[in-house]
Amino acid sequence: MTSVTIKLTKLVELKAELKKHANPQRALVSKSFFKTGKGEYGEGDVFLGLSVPDQRKIAKEYKALPLSDVQKLLKSKIHEERFVALVLLVMRYQSGDESAKKDIFERYLSMSKWINNWDLVDTSAPQIVGDYCWRTEDRQALKNLIKSSDLWERRIGVLATLTFIRQGDVKLTLELAEKLLNDRHDLIHKAVGWMLREAGSRSPQEVKKFLNRHAARMPRTMLRYAIEKFSPDERHRYLQAKFE
Description:
The protein is an all-alpha fold. It has helices at 10-20, 24-33, 52-61, 67-74, 79-95, 98-110, 118-122, 125-136, 140-145, 151-166, 171-179, 186-202, 204-214, 220-226, 232-241. It is globular.
């Protein structure tokens, strides 16, 4: 009998490596943590139960995975496979030339349907969308994203401004934050509050001016995130403004 050796593709190998590190107990915790129940924002998501460090380590081992396979991986029903795909996209973006960056930016936005939980957005939006929009001075793309009916596209738009903040530009963050004051979703409240907090580390006076105008009508979660690094007296003052 002749033996036949089947050469596995790198994509199949990567998926097998992820499954090898699966932890059913951690997967159960993740299903709860990422709100996968009926009617919740992560409804139906499937977890293997890998830690983030393990996922990143495996991604580095497959950094040469063809971009077409990275796209296939991003369309997976398994959360960790999508996470690894996004880590790979970030790595490819950061090492690419301007043409490659443009291509990955466009691919990323075209596949936003699968970037559908907060950790997936947070680990990739600033690094790809934020960086590209900063490089090309394209603020309109982020303004368009926050108008989306899709929760995750709105979060991508908000989180992408982190790159602008790190470059010393907080104006776009404040502009988008004002437009999202009436957003109904808690994950947007948290994202906006987080970006305001980061902006406050760079331009505290600008953020305080913003809060002086809007604290009284900001969602409570958004406000609490925004003032987290303020002094106790300042936090109390802004929290009281909610009820004035």
